Amino acid sequence: MFPEVYKTIERKYEDRRNSATYEYQLKKEEAYQRNPRLAEIDKKIALLGIQSSKAALISDDATKENLKADLKSKLTALKLEKENILNTMQICLTPHYVCEKCQDTGYITTTTGSEMCSCLKQEILNEAYNKSNLYRLKSDTFDNFNSELFSNEPDVEKYGVAISPKQNIEKIKEISQTFIENFENPNQKNLLFTGTPGIGKTFLSSCIANEVLKKGYTVLYQTSPLLLDSIFESKFNNKYNSTKENLFQVNLLIIDDLGTENLTAAKFTELFTIINTRLLNPNTKTIISTNLSLEDLAKNYDDRILSRLIGNFHICKFFGEDIRLKT
Ligand SMILES: [Zn+2]
Protein backbone atom coordinates (compact mmCIF):
# COMPACT_ATOMS: atom_id res chain seq x y z
CA MET A 1 0.00 0.00 0.00
CA PHE A 2 1.29 3.44 -0.92
CA PRO A 3 1.59 6.17 1.74
CA GLU A 4 -0.83 8.48 -0.12
CA VAL A 5 -3.54 5.84 0.15
CA TYR A 6 -2.99 5.65 3.89
CA LYS A 7 -3.13 9.43 4.09
CA THR A 8 -6.45 9.51 2.24
CA ILE A 9 -7.90 6.92 4.58
CA GLU A 10 -6.48 8.61 7.66
CA ARG A 11 -8.10 11.89 6.60
CA LYS A 12 -11.40 10.11 6.02
CA TYR A 13 -11.34 8.66 9.55
CA GLU A 14 -10.38 12.02 11.01
CA ASP A 15 -13.32 13.62 9.18
CA ARG A 16 -15.64 10.95 10.52
CA ARG A 17 -14.46 11.50 14.10
CA ASN A 18 -14.70 15.27 13.73
CA SER A 19 -18.21 15.16 12.40
CA ALA A 20 -19.27 12.71 15.14
CA THR A 21 -17.83 15.09 17.77
CA TYR A 22 -19.37 18.16 16.11
CA GLU A 23 -22.83 16.62 15.95
CA TYR A 24 -22.47 15.47 19.54
CA GLN A 25 -21.52 18.99 20.67
CA LEU A 26 -24.52 20.48 18.84
CA LYS A 27 -26.87 17.97 20.39
CA LYS A 28 -25.39 18.62 23.80
CA GLU A 29 -25.68 22.42 23.52
CA GLU A 30 -29.29 22.13 22.39
CA ALA A 31 -30.15 19.80 25.27
CA TYR A 32 -28.40 22.08 27.81
CA GLN A 33 -30.32 25.08 26.53
CA ARG A 34 -33.57 23.23 26.94
CA ASN A 35 -32.66 22.15 30.46
CA PRO A 36 -29.96 24.24 32.23
CA ARG A 37 -29.96 21.79 35.14
CA LEU A 38 -27.80 19.52 32.89
CA ALA A 39 -24.99 22.11 32.89
CA GLU A 40 -25.24 22.42 36.68
CA ILE A 41 -24.95 18.65 37.05
CA ASP A 42 -21.85 18.61 34.83
CA LYS A 43 -20.28 21.37 36.92
CA LYS A 44 -21.01 19.43 40.12
CA ILE A 45 -19.56 16.25 38.63
CA ALA A 46 -16.37 18.12 37.70
CA LEU A 47 -16.16 19.50 41.23
CA LEU A 48 -16.53 16.00 42.69
CA GLY A 49 -13.57 14.99 40.55
CA ILE A 50 -11.40 17.67 42.16
CA GLN A 51 -12.63 16.79 45.65
CA SER A 52 -11.82 13.15 45.14
CA SER A 53 -8.23 13.93 44.07
CA LYS A 54 -7.89 15.98 47.25
CA ALA A 55 -9.40 13.13 49.28
CA ALA A 56 -6.68 10.82 48.02
CA LEU A 57 -4.12 12.96 49.84
CA ILE A 58 -5.74 12.60 53.26
CA SER A 59 -3.46 10.60 55.52
CA ASP A 60 -6.04 9.29 57.96
CA ASP A 61 -7.41 6.12 56.31
CA ALA A 62 -10.80 6.08 58.03
CA THR A 63 -11.53 9.74 57.14
CA LYS A 64 -10.32 9.11 53.58
CA GLU A 65 -12.55 6.06 53.06
CA ASN A 66 -15.58 7.85 54.48
CA LEU A 67 -15.05 10.84 52.24
CA LYS A 68 -14.48 8.68 49.18
CA ALA A 69 -17.69 6.72 49.83
CA ASP A 70 -19.61 9.96 50.29
CA LEU A 71 -18.25 11.42 47.02
CA LYS A 72 -19.02 8.21 45.17
CA SER A 73 -22.64 8.16 46.28
CA LYS A 74 -23.03 11.84 45.29
CA LEU A 75 -21.56 11.07 41.88
CA THR A 76 -23.92 8.13 41.35
CA ALA A 77 -26.91 10.28 42.30
CA LEU A 78 -25.86 13.07 39.89
CA LYS A 79 -25.31 10.63 37.03
CA LEU A 80 -28.70 9.07 37.66
CA GLU A 81 -30.38 12.49 37.70
CA LYS A 82 -28.71 13.38 34.39
CA GLU A 83 -29.75 10.09 32.84
CA ASN A 84 -33.36 10.62 33.97
CA ILE A 85 -33.48 14.15 32.52
CA LEU A 86 -32.09 12.93 29.18
CA ASN A 87 -34.56 10.03 29.14
CA THR A 88 -37.48 12.41 29.75
CA MET A 89 -36.20 14.65 26.96
CA GLN A 90 -35.80 11.52 24.81
CA ILE A 91 -32.22 12.42 23.96
CA CYS A 92 -29.34 10.00 23.67
CA LEU A 93 -26.19 11.98 24.38
CA THR A 94 -23.48 9.84 22.84
CA PRO A 95 -21.44 10.54 19.70
CA HIS A 96 -22.71 8.67 16.66
CA TYR A 97 -19.85 6.87 14.92
CA VAL A 98 -19.89 5.22 11.48
CA CYS A 99 -18.24 2.23 13.16
CA GLU A 100 -19.18 1.84 16.82
CA LYS A 101 -16.67 -0.98 17.22
CA CYS A 102 -13.59 1.25 16.81
CA GLN A 103 -15.32 4.65 17.29
CA ASP A 104 -13.92 5.61 13.88
CA THR A 105 -10.32 5.29 14.97
CA GLY A 106 -9.72 2.25 12.72
CA TYR A 107 -8.19 0.30 15.59
CA ILE A 108 -9.55 -1.81 18.41
CA THR A 109 -7.87 -2.86 21.63
CA THR A 110 -7.77 -6.57 22.26
CA THR A 111 -6.23 -8.68 25.02
CA THR A 112 -3.08 -8.97 22.93
CA GLY A 113 -2.78 -5.28 22.06
CA SER A 114 -4.13 -2.98 19.38
CA GLU A 115 -5.38 -4.40 16.11
CA MET A 116 -6.82 -3.04 12.87
CA CYS A 117 -10.63 -2.89 12.85
CA SER A 118 -12.37 -4.76 10.01
CA CYS A 119 -13.80 -1.41 8.80
CA LEU A 120 -10.28 -0.11 8.19
CA LYS A 121 -9.18 -3.31 6.47
CA GLN A 122 -12.19 -2.98 4.15
CA GLU A 123 -11.38 0.70 3.49
CA ILE A 124 -7.88 -0.25 2.44
CA LEU A 125 -9.27 -2.87 0.07
CA ASN A 126 -11.76 -0.39 -1.35
CA GLU A 127 -8.96 2.07 -1.99
CA ALA A 128 -6.66 -0.56 -3.45
CA TYR A 129 -9.26 -1.94 -5.84
CA ASN A 130 -11.78 -0.43 -8.12
CA LYS A 131 -14.52 0.72 -5.77
CA SER A 132 -17.21 0.16 -8.39
CA ASN A 133 -16.83 -3.54 -7.67
CA LEU A 134 -18.56 -3.01 -4.39
CA TYR A 135 -21.22 -0.52 -5.43
CA ARG A 136 -23.70 -3.02 -6.77
CA LEU A 137 -23.53 -4.96 -3.56
CA LYS A 138 -25.71 -2.48 -1.71
CA SER A 139 -28.88 -3.18 -3.68
CA ASP A 140 -28.39 -6.93 -3.88
CA THR A 141 -29.94 -8.30 -0.71
CA PHE A 142 -31.84 -11.41 0.27
CA ASP A 143 -34.88 -9.14 0.77
CA ASN A 144 -34.83 -8.50 -2.97
CA PHE A 145 -34.45 -12.18 -3.75
CA ASN A 146 -37.47 -13.36 -5.72
CA SER A 147 -37.71 -17.05 -6.53
CA GLU A 148 -41.02 -16.38 -8.33
CA LEU A 149 -38.92 -15.26 -11.31
CA PHE A 150 -37.99 -18.92 -11.77
CA SER A 151 -40.29 -21.46 -13.38
CA ASN A 152 -41.91 -24.01 -11.09
CA GLU A 153 -42.12 -26.57 -13.90
CA PRO A 154 -39.48 -29.31 -13.80
CA ASP A 155 -37.99 -30.04 -17.22
CA VAL A 156 -35.93 -33.22 -16.99
CA GLU A 157 -35.13 -33.21 -20.68
CA LYS A 158 -33.82 -29.65 -20.67
CA TYR A 159 -32.13 -29.43 -17.28
CA GLY A 160 -31.38 -33.09 -16.56
CA VAL A 161 -32.90 -33.02 -13.05
CA ALA A 162 -36.34 -33.70 -11.64
CA ILE A 163 -36.70 -30.47 -9.65
CA SER A 164 -37.95 -27.15 -11.03
CA PRO A 165 -35.68 -24.10 -11.47
CA LYS A 166 -37.65 -22.44 -8.62
CA GLN A 167 -37.06 -25.33 -6.22
CA ASN A 168 -33.42 -25.37 -7.26
CA ILE A 169 -32.82 -21.66 -6.64
CA GLU A 170 -34.56 -21.89 -3.26
CA LYS A 171 -32.23 -24.75 -2.34
CA ILE A 172 -29.20 -22.68 -3.41
CA LYS A 173 -30.51 -19.75 -1.36
CA GLU A 174 -30.60 -22.03 1.70
CA ILE A 175 -27.05 -23.24 0.99
CA SER A 176 -25.94 -19.59 0.74
CA GLN A 177 -27.56 -18.70 4.05
CA THR A 178 -25.92 -21.66 5.75
CA PHE A 179 -22.61 -20.49 4.26
CA ILE A 180 -23.12 -17.08 5.90
CA GLU A 181 -24.14 -18.56 9.26
CA ASN A 182 -21.10 -20.86 9.25
CA PHE A 183 -18.70 -18.30 7.84
CA GLU A 184 -16.29 -18.65 10.79
CA ASN A 185 -16.43 -22.45 10.70
CA PRO A 186 -13.29 -23.88 9.05
CA ASN A 187 -15.29 -26.96 8.02
CA GLN A 188 -17.80 -24.91 6.03
CA LYS A 189 -17.12 -25.50 2.34
CA ASN A 190 -16.59 -22.70 -0.15
CA LEU A 191 -19.11 -22.15 -2.92
CA LEU A 192 -18.89 -22.80 -6.64
CA PHE A 193 -21.78 -21.38 -8.66
CA THR A 194 -22.08 -22.81 -12.17
CA GLY A 195 -24.67 -22.19 -14.87
CA THR A 196 -25.47 -20.09 -17.91
CA PRO A 197 -25.50 -16.26 -17.59
CA GLY A 198 -28.47 -14.36 -16.22
CA ILE A 199 -29.82 -16.87 -13.71
CA GLY A 200 -28.80 -15.16 -10.50
CA LYS A 201 -25.23 -16.28 -9.78
CA THR A 202 -23.77 -12.78 -9.44
CA PHE A 203 -26.88 -11.54 -7.63
CA LEU A 204 -26.65 -14.30 -5.03
CA SER A 205 -22.91 -13.83 -4.52
CA SER A 206 -23.56 -10.11 -3.95
CA CYS A 207 -26.28 -10.94 -1.39
CA ILE A 208 -23.79 -13.13 0.46
CA ALA A 209 -21.10 -10.42 0.25
CA ASN A 210 -23.51 -7.93 1.79
CA GLU A 211 -24.27 -10.17 4.76
CA VAL A 212 -20.60 -11.06 5.29
CA LEU A 213 -19.69 -7.34 5.26
CA LYS A 214 -22.41 -6.71 7.84
CA LYS A 215 -20.86 -9.40 10.04
CA GLY A 216 -17.67 -7.31 10.08
CA TYR A 217 -15.55 -9.29 7.63
CA THR A 218 -13.63 -8.01 4.63
CA VAL A 219 -14.89 -8.77 1.14
CA LEU A 220 -13.36 -8.43 -2.28
CA TYR A 221 -15.32 -8.94 -5.45
CA GLN A 222 -13.51 -9.25 -8.78
CA THR A 223 -14.15 -10.86 -12.12
CA SER A 224 -11.58 -13.46 -13.00
CA PRO A 225 -10.07 -11.50 -15.94
CA LEU A 226 -9.75 -8.30 -13.86
CA LEU A 227 -8.35 -10.17 -10.89
CA LEU A 228 -5.62 -11.78 -12.97
CA ASP A 229 -4.89 -8.57 -14.87
CA SER A 230 -4.55 -6.69 -11.59
CA ILE A 231 -1.92 -9.18 -10.43
CA PHE A 232 0.12 -8.71 -13.60
CA GLU A 233 -0.27 -4.92 -13.53
CA SER A 234 0.87 -4.90 -9.91
CA LYS A 235 4.19 -6.38 -10.98
CA PHE A 236 4.90 -3.18 -12.91
CA ASN A 237 4.11 -0.72 -10.16
CA ASN A 238 5.70 -2.54 -7.24
CA LYS A 239 2.41 -3.49 -5.68
CA TYR A 240 2.77 -7.21 -6.38
CA ASN A 241 3.27 -8.28 -2.79
CA SER A 242 0.47 -6.19 -1.33
CA THR A 243 -1.90 -7.25 -4.12
CA LYS A 244 -1.18 -10.90 -3.47
CA GLU A 245 -1.46 -10.41 0.28
CA ASN A 246 -4.90 -8.83 -0.13
CA LEU A 247 -6.05 -11.70 -2.32
CA PHE A 248 -4.71 -14.27 0.13
CA GLN A 249 -6.08 -12.65 3.25
CA VAL A 250 -9.40 -10.97 2.47
CA ASN A 251 -12.01 -12.93 4.45
CA LEU A 252 -14.30 -13.45 1.47
CA LEU A 253 -13.01 -13.38 -2.08
CA ILE A 254 -15.58 -13.60 -4.85
CA ILE A 255 -14.14 -14.56 -8.21
CA ASP A 256 -16.84 -13.93 -10.79
CA ASP A 257 -16.87 -15.16 -14.40
CA LEU A 258 -14.19 -17.79 -14.05
CA GLY A 259 -13.48 -19.07 -17.55
CA THR A 260 -13.75 -15.71 -19.32
CA GLU A 261 -10.09 -14.84 -18.70
CA ASN A 262 -7.51 -15.39 -21.43
CA LEU A 263 -5.82 -18.22 -19.67
CA THR A 264 -2.06 -18.47 -20.01
CA ALA A 265 0.28 -20.73 -18.06
CA ALA A 266 1.37 -17.78 -15.89
CA LYS A 267 -2.22 -16.77 -15.13
CA PHE A 268 -3.10 -20.35 -14.36
CA THR A 269 -0.31 -20.50 -11.78
CA GLU A 270 -1.51 -17.28 -10.13
CA LEU A 271 -5.09 -18.52 -10.03
CA PHE A 272 -4.08 -21.86 -8.59
CA THR A 273 -1.91 -20.18 -5.94
CA ILE A 274 -4.77 -17.90 -4.88
CA ILE A 275 -7.29 -20.73 -4.59
CA ASN A 276 -4.86 -23.06 -2.89
CA THR A 277 -3.42 -20.54 -0.42
CA ARG A 278 -6.91 -19.52 0.62
CA LEU A 279 -7.93 -23.13 1.18
CA LEU A 280 -5.07 -23.43 3.68
CA ASN A 281 -6.16 -20.31 5.59
CA PRO A 282 -8.97 -21.05 8.09
CA ASN A 283 -10.00 -17.36 8.16
CA THR A 284 -10.91 -17.13 4.50
CA LYS A 285 -13.70 -18.36 2.25
CA THR A 286 -14.01 -18.15 -1.51
CA ILE A 287 -16.95 -18.01 -3.88
CA ILE A 288 -16.28 -18.78 -7.51
CA SER A 289 -18.90 -18.34 -10.17
CA THR A 290 -18.63 -19.53 -13.74
CA ASN A 291 -20.73 -19.83 -16.85
CA LEU A 292 -18.94 -23.08 -17.63
CA SER A 293 -20.25 -26.49 -16.69
CA LEU A 294 -18.07 -28.81 -14.61
CA GLU A 295 -17.29 -30.74 -17.80
CA ASP A 296 -16.07 -27.55 -19.50
CA LEU A 297 -14.06 -26.58 -16.43
CA ALA A 298 -12.41 -29.99 -16.59
CA LYS A 299 -11.51 -29.33 -20.22
CA ASN A 300 -10.16 -25.80 -19.64
CA TYR A 301 -8.27 -26.19 -16.36
CA ASP A 302 -5.84 -28.82 -15.32
CA ASP A 303 -6.63 -31.41 -12.68
CA ARG A 304 -4.90 -29.50 -9.90
CA ILE A 305 -7.51 -26.73 -9.90
CA LEU A 306 -10.39 -29.05 -10.55
CA SER A 307 -9.53 -31.38 -7.69
CA ARG A 308 -9.33 -28.36 -5.33
CA LEU A 309 -12.75 -27.17 -6.49
CA ILE A 310 -14.48 -30.52 -6.26
CA GLY A 311 -13.05 -31.39 -2.86
CA ASN A 312 -13.46 -28.06 -1.10
CA PHE A 313 -16.36 -26.27 -2.76
CA HIS A 314 -20.07 -26.89 -2.47
CA ILE A 315 -21.09 -27.06 -6.12
CA CYS A 316 -24.35 -25.28 -6.89
CA LYS A 317 -25.75 -25.73 -10.38
CA PHE A 318 -27.97 -22.84 -11.45
CA PHE A 319 -30.49 -23.47 -14.21
CA GLY A 320 -33.60 -21.88 -15.69
CA GLU A 321 -34.51 -19.11 -18.12
CA ASP A 322 -32.58 -15.83 -18.17
CA ILE A 323 -34.25 -13.82 -15.37
CA ARG A 324 -32.75 -10.52 -16.51
CA LEU A 325 -35.46 -10.43 -19.17
CA LYS A 326 -38.15 -10.73 -16.51
CA THR A 327 -37.12 -7.92 -14.15
ZN1 LIG B 1 -14.19 0.11 12.83
Instruction: Estimate the strand proportion.
Output: 5-15%
Instruction: Report low-confidence residues grouped into runs of 5 or more.
Output: none
Total domain modules: 2
Tell me, what is the CATH class of the largest domain?
A: Alpha Beta
Compact description:
This protein has 327 residues and is an alpha/beta fold.
Please, could you describe this protein's structure?
By secondary structure, this protein is of the alpha/beta class. 57% of the residues lie in helices and 11% in strands. It has 13 helices and 7 strands. It has helices spanning 3-34, 37-55, 61-89, 118-128, 132-135, 156-159, 165-181, 201-214, 224-236, 240-249, 265-280, 294-300, 303-312; strands spanning 107-110, 113-116, 190-194, 219-223, 252-258, 285-290, 313-317. Strand 1 and strand 2 (113-116) form a beta hairpin. Helix 2 (37-55) packs antiparallel against helix 3 (61-89), helix 7 (165-181) packs parallel to helix 8 (201-214) and helix 10 packs across helix 11 (265-280). It is elongated. The mean pLDDT is 89. The structure holds zinc ion (ZN).
What keywords describe this structure?
327 residues, Rossmann fold, two-stranded antiparallel sheet, 7 strands, binds zinc ion
Write the layout of secondary structure elements.
Blueprint: H1 3-34, H2 37-55, H3 61-89, E1 107-110, E2 113-116, H4 118-128, H5 132-135, H6 156-159, H7 165-181, E3 190-194, H8 201-214, E4 219-223, H9 224-236, H10 240-249, E5 252-258, H11 265-280, E6 285-290, H12 294-300, H13 303-312, E7 313-317
Residues 99, 101-102, 117, 119 line the site of zinc ion.
